[in-house]
Amino acid sequence: MKFPRPMPQQTASGQSLRRPVAAGSRYRFVRAVLALLLACLWQGAALAQGNHGASPRAAAHDGFGRMVFDWSRPVEYSADVLNDDKLVVRFSRPIQGDVRNLVRPLSHYLTNAAISDDHRTATFRLRHPVTVKSTTNARGSVVVDMADAAAAPGLSPKDAAPPPPAAASGPGGKAAPMVGVRVGDHGSYSRLVFSWPKDVGYKVEKSDGGAVVSFAGKGRIDAAALKAALPKDMALTAVREGRTGTEVQLKVPRDARLRHFAAGSKVV
Fold first, then answer.
1. Is the peptide bond before 129 cis (omega within 30 degrees of 0)?
2. 184: buried, middle or exposed (CB in 10 Å: 19+, 13-18, 0-12)?
3. Residue of higher predicted confidence among 48 and 65
4. 213-237 as b/e: b if 16+ CB within 10 A
5. For residue 193, which of 81, 109, 117 has the smallest C-alpha distance?
6. Which H/E stretch holds residue 43?
7. Phi, psi of 35 (to 5 degrees)
8. Whole-number Å distance between alpha carbons of 189 and 91
9. Of the ranges 6-10, 65-69, 174-178, which is most confident?
10. pLDDT of residue 94
């Protein structure tokens, strides 16, 4: 079936009548195009500085980097550094969004990112050793902060504690090894990981409002960095280096349940 096209109206002299385009319409059209171009430019600039507003998102701050994962309801999570070259962030539910978008804003710390098949674990390759602190904010988002290993998370290098003094040499002129400590706030629990250069014996004793971790080996622990990284409900009381061992004294909530285990040379 064909429908004839209506013929344009003509004047008595045979000229077609065409409706003139109003100047105001042209102005509104040009203004809309310019607004669209400006919006695209603004979005590109935002992406160049950090993927703000998306989830997950990341940004570099003064002395530390931050990645944020938004969730509509509480989620279990963990953030751990493995072998000083990988940051592994795990969730109990699949991650929405592309974790590779976090690499560019945090290029000082990260080189690449990968996601597991179930989208619950993100693995980031580290450019150099870092310390990591994870927590949840008031909106329920999971926040993972990282800083160079020499600085405490969330602090600029000028505010970070200086490196601990070298320990006095023991028999044979060998100084006590440095023991790395990582702290993670995982919402319903907190985790401390002591990384020794080799396997070490230990024991954990809990008293009323306190806990003592005793290691059967001499090691140097950066007390200032550990104190700055602990969550608000915990505090470092003392780090003591004895003749044959090292002791870490902590203040913990009275109703806290302590669980601990050794994973190779790491004590968790």
1. no
2. buried
3. 65
4. bbbebbbbbbbebbebbbeeebebe
5. 81
6. helix 23-49
7. -65, -40
8. 14
9. 65-69
10. 93
Span 158-174, mean pLDDT? 47
Residue 124, both tokens: 């980031």
Q: Are strands 121-126 and 110-115 parallel, antiparallel or unpaired?
A: antiparallel
Q: In 3D, which of 66, 44, 42, 41 has the Cα closest to residue 56?
A: 66
Using a 10 angstrom Cβ sphere, with 0-12 exposed, 13-18 middle and 19 or more buried, the burial of residue 38 is: exposed
Check if the beta carbon of residue 126 is closer than 8 Å to that of residue 84: yes
Residues 6+ apart with CB under 8 A from 145: 64, 65, 66, 132, 133, 134, 153, 154
Q: What is the pLDDT of residues 4-43, one digit of tens each?
A: 555 555 555 555 555 555 556 666 766 766 666 655 554 4
